[in-house]
Every structure is written in structure tokens, then in C-alpha cells.
């Protein structure tokens, strides 16, 4: 692995509609071939951080007002989303966002529109996705709107893969799915990282699963990354266990005041 | 019985022309959520430009090509200078923008070509021909043929090409389309050009039937009941809706008209659409919301 990380988010501030401050100086980095997870409470800023990375803020009238996002050392702040997809960064949106009236296969093909694939090259790219997600094969001719939540999540990931990304940002891939399906999806993400060297940036509410599968974790609070470290270390921290696993007895303590930092940098 | 059939066929044929106008709306509505009120003005501009060129001795084919070029340029300009700056604005803002646009286009047409009424002769007789024992207007047949071919071409384009797939993706979920790297402005440009071509074809057909004059832009009002019936977001709905309205209108004119002392063709479609709206607000083929969380 080289010295410079693949993705660097450097002290960014994000404002929605010129009024709502969603990120206040968030920094993180993802190395090539690394799976990084962002954990944090509702409204902490995880989705916003992902959208800043894949340049999807503009569609929600959000803007990076300070700091930079670097992909392979290049400032990508001015690229539009399509350029960024071509450069190798793609996002799998929260709630999957498959195209409901397109068939499963058409959904996959739509992911390759930017690559202008046709004929045999397109077939090969499709087969690769079907290999990873055999569950999609019998559904290929069915409208995506009629497939199950798990299948839609697989489809959304498959569709992203059709663009040949080097970094995939995933927003809550486990949302609303049964534990077994979640495992299946994270196993495939694992394979993508190991076999294809694709880097992953995963925002998750399901901290237990995410920490088990990620290499590195950041905890986001009030628009900042307040703690980070190897996933195993983070999982072992008692304060994190309290907050995100609800495992220990002290999880019944009174909630912290809104806005006050809950976690502090470990000594 | 033959008479009934004759009325029915006549109605269906004029229905195809309604379908074509309605499709112009659906294309833009599906991809950008804009109800393009300027469609009528575009249609008028196309017909007026064509007829004025022909009157100035420009050969038929050249006039057609020049008008087509003009429609493409207008489509590009609308996308670039009106809609792109207004991206992510609420639908009512976009609708108002196209409303304003329609006056700009109508004004420009008048400035450019004057305000008099022109006859447009596409070289097709309106004489009825006999087929299978019933009489059909030759012009209606021709117009329906052209409109039908146009509709078929559009459907094939959207089903079979990469741009067509991108179009349907954008129509389905704009944010998702953006996230997978589809260039929305390119799709919008393609759609506005397509809408310009539809305006050209329907402008010539309607212009030949009604005469080219400013009231021609009101033809789009005829598309509204079709859209109510077929759903604003369904190409198939626009086709079927157009046929239904065309047929219903003619049948009503002949069979119920006398009860009202005739002349119900003008408003029957709107009443039918209103009644239908109360029963099925999303139209026959409107978006069945298939969604899962
Ligand atoms: N489109 C938007 N317009 C205005 N404010 C927004 C928008 N999206 C998010 N916000 C605000 O930005 C802050 C961060 O939201 P964000 O969605 O990034 O949090 P999150 O960590 O992903 O939360 P969750 O776990 O609920 O998904 C919140 O205060 C939220 O209200
Ligand atoms: Mg979120």
C-alpha cells in the first residue's frame, strides 16, 4: 500500500440551503483497498459526508463551504457527479434507489452508461455482477420495483459496480434488511475489497455488523469525526459499546445534553 | 353499423394526432417534472416557420430541414438558458417559466413571420376514400400514419438505445440517475430536441387541418384531457388516451350531440376527462408507485 491515501476528506464544512450547518470540520481518509465505516447517531452527518465525497450535495442545495476532498491527491470539489463516477468514485444511496420501472438487467446496464459499453464487453460486465449476486439472475427480466429489499440492495451495489469504481460509498446498506441478508451483503463487500481491491466507505447505524467487517472506523458526532481507529479497537471501547450497541447496563443512563460531545479523543 | 364503424375509425384517426401532441408533454414531464406549457407555442412556431418558408419559394424538403434545425436550436436554448438555471426549483416555478416562455416564442413568431393566417398544403387530398365499405378521409389516414410512425419511432428509441435507457432512468429516479453518472443535462437536451421534433410534426399536421394561425397553439389544450386520461407520465397512456378521446369525441358528437343541439365536440373531451379524473386521479396508466423500503 502506498503512502498517500486514496481518499482524503480534509476539514470540510457543509451547509444546506445556505442555512443549515451539517458538517463542521470533518476529516477522514480511506486507503486503497481499505473498508472504512462511519458510525454515529441520527443526524450526525454521515450521509452528508458521503454526499460530499461523491458530489451529490448540489442536488439537495448543499455546498462544501470549507475544506477539500481529495481523490488520489486531486481536488475533486469542482467535478460534477458524472465526472467523478468516471474517475472511480460512486455512491450507493441510502434506501438503494433502484429504478423501479426498469428491469433488474436494465438497472445494471444503466450503471454502465458512462462507460459506453456494448456487445460483448457489456455482457462480460453483467456476468461479473451476476457472479457476485447469483440471486439477481432469476430476476433479471423483472421490474426492480417488484424485487425484495435485499435484492434491491444487491442490485444497487451491482449497478454501482458496472461503472468500475475504485471507491464505493455506501449509505446504510443494512437498512431494513434481515440479519442473514445483511451478512450476505457484507460478505460480498468483503470480497470486493479483497478480490478486486475496491475501497469502501460505509455509513452505518448497525455498528456491530459494520465494525465486524470494516478495517477502520470513524465516529461522527455533530458534523465532526470525533474518534477513529482500527475497527477492532473501536468495537472494544466501552463508551462506544454503550452508545452504539446498547449492550452494557450503563446504557440506561440519562441521555447527554444535545450538542454536547459524547465521546472524546482517546488519550 | 357501417356508419358507426365509419365514425369510430374517423375518431381513432384524429385521436392519433392527439396522442402525438400529448407525447410531447409526456417526454418532458417524465424526465424533468415540468409541464411544458410552451409546447403549443413550439408547435405554432414550427408550423409558421415552415409555411412562411414555403411561401417564400423555399423547396418543401429544405423548408422542413430548416424548420427542424430551428426546433433543435430552440430546444437546446430552452434547456440551457431557462431550465438549467432553474434546476432543483419547485415544479410551479418551472411551470411558470414555461408559461412565460410560450409568450416569448409566440411573440418571436409574430415578429418574425407576421400575424396573418396561412393555409398549409401538404399535398394530400382531403377527399374520402372507400375501404372495406366505409369512407375514410385520406388526409386523416395520412396524418394518422405519420403520427403513428413518429410515436413508434419514439417508443423504439426509448426501448432500444442507450440514451433511451438513460431517459427512462432519469424519469424513474433523478437522484439515482445522477448518482450512477448519467449526465442529466444531456438527457434533458435530447428530450427537448425530441419535443421540438414532435412539435414540428404535429404542427404541420394540425396546421394543415386547421390552418396556420395563432389559435393553433391552443391545440395543446386538446392534449390535456388526453393526459388526464392516460396519465402525465406514461407514453403508452398518451397513445391510448389520444385514441380514446378521439373516438369518444366523434361518437359523442354523432350520437349524443343532437340531444344538446350539436357542437359538443368542443367540450366533450374535457367533461369526459373531468369525470374520469374523479374516478382515477393518476390516469389509466399513471405511475403505479412501486416502492419498497
Ligand atoms: N437536504 C437537506 N437539507 C437540509 N438539511 C439537511 C439535509 N440533509 C441533511 N440535513 C441536516 O444535516 C444534518 C446531518 O444529516 P445527515 O443526513 O448527514 O445525518 P446522518 O448521520 O446520515 O443521519 P441518519 O443516521 O439519520 O441517516 C442533520 O441535521 C440534517 O437535518
Ligand atoms: Mg444518513
From TrEMBL, chain A:
Keywords: Amino-acid transport, ATP-binding, Nucleotide-binding, Transport
SUPFAM superfamilies per the UniProt record, alphabetical: P-loop containing nucleoside triphosphate hydrolases
GO molecular function: ATP binding; ATP hydrolysis activity; branched-chain amino acid transmembrane transporter activity
Protein name: ABC transporter ATP-binding protein
Homology family: Belongs to the ABC transporter superfamily.
CDD domains membership: ABC_TM1139_LivF_branched
GO biological process: L-amino acid transport
Domain of life: Bacteria
Domain ABC transporter: 7-247
SMART domains named among the record's database cross-references: AAA
Pfam families in alphabetical order: ABC_tran
Record InterPro entries: AAA+_ATPase, ABC_transporter-like_ATP-bd, BCAA_Transport_ATP-bd_LivF, P-loop_NTPase
PANTHER family recorded: ABC TRANSPORTER SUBSTRATE-BINDING PROTEIN, HIGH-AFFINITY BRANCHED-CHAIN AMINO ACID TRANSPORT ATP-BINDING PROTEIN LIVF
TrEMBL record, chain B:
Topology in membrane: Multi-pass membrane protein
Record's subcellular location: Cell membrane
The entry's keywords: Amino-acid transport, Cell membrane, Membrane, Transmembrane, Transmembrane helix, Transport
Transmembrane feature ranges: 6-27, 60-82, 94-115, 135-158, 187-206, 226-247, 259-279
Main localisation: membrane
Family: Belongs to the binding-protein-dependent transport system permease family. LivHM subfamily.
PANTHER family linked: ABC TRANSPORTER PERMEASE PROTEIN (PTHR11795:SF451), BRANCHED-CHAIN AMINO ACID TRANSPORT SYSTEM PERMEASE PROTEIN LIVH (PTHR11795)
UniProt protein name: Branched-chain amino acid ABC transporter permease
Amino acid at each position: 500500500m502506498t503512502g498517500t491515501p486514496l481518499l482524503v476528506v480534509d476539514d470540510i464544512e457543509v451547509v444546506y440551503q445556505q442555512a443549515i450547518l451539517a458538517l463542521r470540520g470533518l476529516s477522514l481518509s480511506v486507503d486503497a483497498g481499505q473498508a472504512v465505516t462511519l458510525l454515529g447517531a441520527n443526524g450526525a452527518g454521515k450521509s452528508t459526508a458521503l454526499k460530499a465525497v461523491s458530489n451529490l450535495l448540489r442536488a439537495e442545495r448543499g455546498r462544501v463551504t470549507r475544506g477539500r476532498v481529495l481523490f488520489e491527491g486531486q481536488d475533486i470539489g469542482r467535478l460534477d457527479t458524472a465526472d467523478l463516477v468516471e474517475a472511480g468514485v460512486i455512491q450507493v444511496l441510502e434506501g438503494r434507489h433502484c429504478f423501479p420501472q426498469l428491469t433488474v438487467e436494465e438497472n445494471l446496464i444503466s450503471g454502465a452508461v458512462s462507460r459506453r459499453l456494448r456487445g460483448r464487453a457489456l455482457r462480460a460486465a453483467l456476468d461479473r455482477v451476476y457472479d457476485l449476486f447469483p440471486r439477481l439472475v432469476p430476476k433479471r427480466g423483472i421490474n426492480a420495483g417488484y424485487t425484495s429489499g435485499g435484492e434491491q440492495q444487491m442490485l444497487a451495489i451491482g449497478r454501482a459496480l458496472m461503472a468500475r469504481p475504485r471507491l464505493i460509498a455506501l449509505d446504510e446498506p443494512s437498512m431494513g434488511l434481515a440479519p442473514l441478508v445483511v451478512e450476505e451483503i457484507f460478505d460480498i463487500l468483503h470480497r470486493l475489497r479483497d478480490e478486486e481491491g475496491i475501497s469502501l466507505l460505509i455509513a452505518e447505524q448497525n455498528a456491530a455488523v459494520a465494525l465486524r467487517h470494516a478495517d477502520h472506523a470513524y465516529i461522527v458526532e455533530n458534523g465532526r469525526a470525533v474518534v477513529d481507529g482500527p475497527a477492532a479497537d473501536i468495537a472494544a471501547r466501552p463508551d462506544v459499546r454503550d452508545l452504539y450497541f446498547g449492550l452494557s447496563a450503563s446504557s440506561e443512563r440519562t441521555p447527554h445534553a444535545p450538542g454536547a460531545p459524547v465521546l472524546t479523543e482517546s488519550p | 353499423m357501417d356508419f358507426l364503424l365509419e365514425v369510430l375509425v374517423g375518431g381513432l384517426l384524429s385521436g392519433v394526432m392527439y396522442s402525438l401532441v400529448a407525447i410531447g408533454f409526456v417526454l418532458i414531464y417524465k424526465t424533468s417534472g415540468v409541464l411544458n406549457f410552451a409546447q403549443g407555442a413550439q408547435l405554432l412556431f414550427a408550423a409558421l416557420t415552415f409555411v412562411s418558408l414555403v411561401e417564400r419559394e423555399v423547396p418543401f424538403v429544405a423548408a422542413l430541414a430548416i424548420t427542424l434545425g430551428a426546433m433543435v436550436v430552440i430546444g437546446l436554448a430552452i434547456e440551457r438558458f431557462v431550465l438549467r438555471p432553474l434546476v432543483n426549483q419547485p415544479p410551479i416555478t418551472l411551470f411558470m417559466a414555461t408559461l412565460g416562455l410560450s409568450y416569448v416564442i409566440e411573440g418571436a413568431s409574430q415578429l418574425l413571420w407576421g400575424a396573418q393566417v396561412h393555409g398549409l398544403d401538404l399535398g394530400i387530398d382531403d377527399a374520402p376514400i372507400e375501404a372495406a365499405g366505409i369512407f375514410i378521409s385520406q388526409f386523416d389516414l395520412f396524418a394518422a400514419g405519420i403520427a403513428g410512425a413518429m410515436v413508434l419511432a419514439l417508443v423504439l428509441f426509448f426501448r432500444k438505445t442507450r440514451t433511451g435507457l438513460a431517459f427512462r432512468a432519469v424519469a424513474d429516479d433523478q437522484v439515482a440517475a445522477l448518482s450512477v453518472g448519467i449526465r442529466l443535462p444531456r438527457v434533458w437536451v435530447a428530450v427537448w430536441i425530441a419535443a421540438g421534433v414532435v412539435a414540428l410534426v404535429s404542427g404541420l399536421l394540425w396546421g394543415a387541418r386547421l390552418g396556420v394561425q395563432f389559435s393553433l397553439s391552443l391545440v395543446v389544450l386538446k392534449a390535456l384531457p388526453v393526459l388526464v386520461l392516460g396519465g402525465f407520465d406514461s407514453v403508452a397512456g398518451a397513445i391510448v388516451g389520444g385514441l380514446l378521446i378521439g373516438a369518444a369525441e366523434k361518437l359523442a358528437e354523432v350520437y349524443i350531440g343532437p340531444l344538446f343541439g350539436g357542437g359538443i365536440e368542443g367540450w366533450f373531451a374535457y367533461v369526459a376527462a373531468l369525470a374520469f379524473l374523479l374516478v382515477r386521479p393518476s390516469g389509466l396508466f399513471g405511475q403505479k408507485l412501486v416502492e419498497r423500503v
